[in-house]
Amino acid sequence: MKLLQLTILIILSLVMSPVESVGQNNKTGTGAAASQPGSLRGRVKAQKGRPMAGVTVRATASGRQYETTSNAQGDFVFSELAPDEYVLAFVKSGYKTFTTRSLTVAPGETVRLSRLIEMAPDGPPYSVIRGAVLHGAGFTLPNALVALERIDGRRKLKMETLSLEGGEFAFRLRAEPATYRITAKAAGFESASLEMTIENDEVRNIVLNLKRLP
To answer: What is the CATH number for 169?
Structure first.
């Protein structure tokens, strides 16, 4: 009888003992990973020139702004960035301000700019719209026809160029408020267009991603 009572007590103690929640531990780990900061780095140089030191680089996202300065080799780095979508602005006296497209910084990730940032010297004011033609999962598309058309009705303007080996293209325009449509076409692909407004002398970067025809 005593043996039976002892067995029952052992079983009850096992059933009622606390159990560690695996789900809660996993959730805590996921939250910690999501809060890890990221970093962003790159290099800046003068247009058709050497690396530039002393360029002020600002990273802006969701109302937050971080600032750093390029070193003698033109290198710059932002560490401890909160995960977000960042736009970089490059500022130096005597040169046009350069602004990038949105860059995603993921938790614990280091983003390296794939190409050098080139600062254009001040001179007669002008604007530049430049970018790249891509297809699929970010593959470059050379020899695509890229057309620019002014569509605000103030002045007629049409320009065309072909994308280069890396898919890049550029248009140099008057420094004046204007709205343009940029369209990329290539054989075997659907065309892609983007409209944008230029306020004054500025450099804008865009990406046109073409989908292959079925």
So the answer is: 2.60.40.10
Would the pTM of this model clear 0.90, i.e. be above it? Answer: no
For residue 75, what is the domain's CATH number? 2.60.40.1120
Residue-range definition of the domain harbouring residue 129: 124-214
Q: How far apart are CA 206 and CA 132, in angstroms?
A: 7
Task: Give the Å distances, CA to CA, from 44 to 72, 97, 157.
Answer: 10, 12, 32
Nearest residue to 86 via CA among 68, 63, 107: 63
pLDDT of the residue at 54:
95
Does residue 28 surpass a pLDDT of 80? no
Contact 100, 62 (CB under 8 A): no
Q: What angle do CA 132, 133, 138 make, to 5 degrees?
A: 95
Residue reference for tokens 């297809």 = 135
